[in-house]
Amino acid sequence: MFSCNTSTSGHSTFLLTGFPGLEAFQHWVSIPINFICAVSILGNSIILFLIRTDPALHEPMYIFLSMLVASDLGLCASTFPTMVRLFWLGARELPFDLCAAQMFFIHAFTYVESGVLLAMAFDRFIAIRDPLHYTTILTRSAMAKVGIAILVRAVLLNLPGPILLRRLLFPQISVLSHCYCLHCDLVGLACSDTQINSFVGLVSILLSLCLDSFLIMLSYALILRTVLGIASPGEQLKALNTCVSHLCIVLIFYLPKLGLSVLHRVEKHSYPALAVLMANLHFLVPPFMNPIVYCIKSKQIRQGLLKRFQQKKVDIS
Question: What keywords are assigned to this protein (predicted)?
């Protein structure tokens, strides 16, 4: 980080970081990352289109899935532009306002995704616990209210971040740890007192990711207790099988974040390139893997895809 002697407020320039030590090969290293981004956008767009246009997919589980897909697309749109600018155009500079805006959208879409995963866990619990009243409990009105609540929570928890950053003093030029802006990174670069910012950031995480992960685990504990109360082993297996897709994407969402957290505390300075790679992948892997998981595990989505391809083939013929 540059000297704080020439610090300014709100007029700083932040320099994005690629892969330390691999600058000469940065274009080649970025190819798989850009490929993952492109496939993520394409795959999630296809899933969203299928759910929107296929009446057979207008069920609570798939409506929640469409919310998850939309948040994945938002996350890709928040991170992909700066990656392209850095890796392919060599543009490292990012003004304060743009950096703060990117930080807000990255964290907001992350919190939305976490909230949707919690809603999907509740959806699976209702489907197994009370299947006869499943559609009467999870009506379209109820799901709309859940979606609005998730979005409002994400906005309210992240809105103080950019506002409080404006009161801090930064060097005229600061070097970020990643190829995008994160709250903890910006707070760590500030020259003035950051106790309020750190406290607000901690509360934000506790009321989103930590709370959601706890409630998801609680939901699965209740699901497991309900399943164990089913007499038939075949019915038990069938009930658990409906949760496999959701459980996979929960692990895909939370495990990279856990791995990155451990890496930052143990070996961040020993392997800076690995830390940057993990930081990129922990945002890119969930949007990349979620459509793949649901295409493999969901018969309805596979049938919808097949129907679209067959319809396209007939139209071409």
Answer: Cell membrane, G-protein coupled receptor, Membrane, Olfaction, Receptor, Sensory transduction, Transducer, Transmembrane, Transmembrane helix
Q: How many CB atoms lie within 10 A of CB 317?
A: 5
- Which of 3.90.25.10, 1.20.1070.10, 2.20.25.90, 2.60.120.1440 would CATH assign to domain 13-308? 1.20.1070.10
- Whether the CB-CB separation of 175 and 15 falls below 8 Å is answered with yes
* Per-residue pLDDT tens listing for the chain (317 residues): 456 655 565 678 898 887 766 666 777 777 888 888 889 999 999 999 999 988 888 899 999 999 999 999 999 999 888 888 888 777 888 999 999 999 999 999 999 999 999 999 999 999 999 888 898 999 999 999 999 999 999 999 999 999 999 888 888 888 888 888 989 889 888 888 889 999 999 999 999 999 999 999 999 999 999 998 887 888 888 888 889 999 999 999 998 887 777 666 665 556 666 777 777 778 888 999 999 998 888 888 888 888 877 776 656 65
Q: Let me know: does 193 contact 294? Beta carbons within 8 Å.
A: no
